[in-house]
Amino acid sequence: MSVVKVKPRQTGATAVLSRLGQPVVTSVTGGEIGVVTRPSEAGFNPLDLLYASLSACLVLSARIAASNLGVLDRLGEVRAEVKGEKAADEPSRIERFHVAIEVGGDFDEATKAAIIADAERICTVSNTLKGNPILVKTKG
To answer: Per CATH, which fold does 45-130 belong to?
Structure first.
């Protein structure tokens, strides 16, 4: 069984908002993304970024899972679609995530199911959402 070694990466983000502008989020590695706020505006709003994090983590984890299972050479496209439902009561939050994962490639259904199950187990974002992370406020 082949195991993919993951090199640690600096993580973190800072959002900056001017009085009249839109938020801009910069990663500790220098990546930058603008954040939109109007419902019809194209781009990512904060909830889209949450869904994007989960979907990206799941597809990357599926690739790791396929490698761990020794079938990476047969892996085709992996797609994870994530949507959510906001809670009707306070506090404002996503109450339910809807996740659909599709694994393409030359696999039987049991292998596809194993890749998906392993991806869900590997994914740091989904594991964090299933847990109860502690938010620690620090002075900036």
So the answer is: GMP Synthetase; Chain A, domain 3 (3.30.300)
Contact 74, 106 (CB under 8 A): yes
Alpha carbons within 13 A on the beta-carbon side of 33? 14
User: Per residue in 24-79, pLDDT tens?
Assistant: 999 999 999 999 988 889 999 999 999 999 999 999 999 999 999 999 999 999 99
Residues of the chain with CATH 3.30.300.20: 45-130
pTM for the predicted model, two decimal places: 0.88
Q: Is cis: bond before 133, omega within 30 of 0?
A: no
DSSP class of residue 72 equals G
| Radius of gyration over every alpha carbon of the chain, rounded to an integer in angstroms | 18
Pick from 52, 78, 53: which is nearest to 63 by CA? 78
Strands 75-86 and 32-34: unpaired
Q: Residue range 87-101: average pLDDT?
A: 96
Tokens of 74: 């047969």
